[in-house]
Design a protein that fits this description.
Chain lengths: 96, 269
């Protein structure tokens, strides 16, 4: 997906996942799930309420922060939301 | 230009005029911050701890990365592979008439499955591995996803389900629910069904039916549904039901249901 005004994409490799998570003040708990840096009991959730492991982390999009899983169905749902202009607020994080 | 990109230009001091992509990596074996690939169309920024030793520079880059993800709702910040797949998905949306045709016709919950199935079909045709996608689809939607995916790959959405819709649509009492009921019967019965196809020779068809009868018998199933849509296929099905190669297995008269040019025969053995 691209907007007319921008041709340059920013992407990250699997190796840079930790850096990207750090940018959003997130880290990884002992079981590999992405959690809040300042409260490691709080696992972050996708828009449909799923917890995300670091190896499933595909990225972040605006709305306020929507975390995307890497499976094909999640990517399709993201494409649908972007095409329809849906920018729902992210769900409340779940205490583990 | 988006603000994050302006800020990044100020940080890295490189000419971005020919750049198409900026990729973050963490390579501990490489001590260079900036590298290039793809004829300098991709700028690679190495964010490994050994390179990001200046805390101020690191903090600036972290803030740029965060704003890159949140500045434009149409431009998510994605992992490289997810970004490639998303581009492929976007192309599929624009090009595939099947998605446009079935939107609003099949159950809404089946649309993401159909899109995924088309993506898988496309990837397979391009020689890319698809096992991972099939597993992901099955994990999310269960057995129904396998069935729809198989129907899609075999071209049945074009050869059977679309003609079924068009046939039913001609009826004066047609409703979406009428189509969905028939569609659901087809989906649920697919593992135990044969679909008559114009592209298939009669001998191939009878071979397939005979093979499924034998397989079904082996696993304790005593019936098989055969679907035909279109006058020509209905005629072929009727011939099949008189064919001794097949009728030799019958334990009872087949049960047939015909509505116009849609026919389903349930055979018993």
């Amino acid at each position: 997906m691209k907007t007319e005004k921008q041709d340059i994409k920013l992407v990250f490799s699997e190796s840079a996942r930790d850096f990207v998570l750090e940018a959003f003040h997130k880290t990884v708990d002992d079981e590999g799930y992405i959690v809040e840096q300042d409260n490691k009991q709080q696992r972050i959730l996708t828009l449909d309420g799923q917890e995300i492991r670091k190896d499933q982390f595909a990225g972040v999009r605006k709305g306020s922060e929507i975390y995307v899983k890497s499976d094909i169905v999640s990517l399709i749902e993201m494409c649908d939301d972007i095409r329809s202009g849906k920018t729902a607020h992210a769900p409340v994080v779940r205490e583990s | 230009m988006l603000q994050w990109l302006e800020n990044l230009k100020s940080l890295v001091h490189i000419d971005l005029s020919k750049v198409k992509q900026i990729k973050l990596i963490s390579d501990i074996k490489n001590n260079k911050f900036i590298n290039y690939e793809d004829n300098r169309k991709t700028v690679i920024l190495n964010v490994s701890p050994g390179v990001m030793t200046d805390p101020t520079q690191k903090q600036q880059l972290l803030e740029i990365v965060k704003s890159a993800g949140l500045e434009d709702p149409a431009q998510p910040l994605l992992e490289e592979k997810a970004s490639e797949e998303t581009t492929q998905l976007a192309e599929l949306y624009d090009d595939d008439p099947l998605i446009a045709y079935f939107q609003g016709k099949i159950p809404n919950d089946d649309m993401p499955i159909l899109r995924s199935a088309l993506f898988i079909k496309n990837a397979h045709a391009q020689g890319r591995p698809v096992d991972r996608y099939k597993i992901e689809l099955r994990e999310r939607y269960g057995k129904r996803a396998d069935i729809i995916s198989n129907l899609c790959t075999a071209g049945y959405f074009e050869s059977h389900i679309k003609p079924m819709y068009e046939e039913l649509e001609r009826r004066p009492n047609f409703s979406r629910e009428m189509f969905m009921e028939n569609y659901d019967i087809m989906i649920k019965g697919t593992p135990f069904a044969v679909f008559v196809r114009r592209s298939q020779s009669y001998s191939d068809l009878s071979g397939e039916v005979e093979g499924k009868i034998i397989t079904n018998q082996r696993y304790g199933r005593k019936t098989l549904n055969i679907h035909a849509i279109g006058a020509e296929n209905v005629s072929v099905l009727n011939s099949l039901l008189q064919d001794e190669t097949i009728t030799q297995y019958f334990s009872a008269e087949p049960s047939t249901k015909r509505e116009g040019n849609i026919m389903v025969a349930q055979i018993f053995f």
